[in-house]
Amino acid sequence: MNASSNTRAQTLPAHHARPDAQGFFGRFGGAFIPPELRRQMDEINAAYQRISRSHDFIQELRSIRTHFQGRPTPVYYCKNLTEKIGGARIYLKREDLNHTGAHKLNHCMGEALLAKFLGKKKLIAETGAGQHGVALATAGAYFNIPVEVHMGEVDIAKEHPNVVRMKILGARIVPVSRGLRTLKEAVDSAFESYLQDPVNSIYCIGSVVGPHPFPLMVREFQRIVGTESREQFLAMTGALPDNVVACVGGGSNAMGIFSAFLDDPVALHGVEPLGRGAKLGDHAASLSHGTEGIMHGFNSIMLKDSHGNPAPVHSVASGLDYPAVGPEHAYLYTTGRTHVGTATDDETIRAFFQLSRTEGIIPALESAHAIAYATKLAPQNPAQTILVNLSGRGDKDIDFVMEKYGHYAGENHCD
Question: Is the pTM here over 0.90, yes or no?
Answer without folding.
Answer: yes
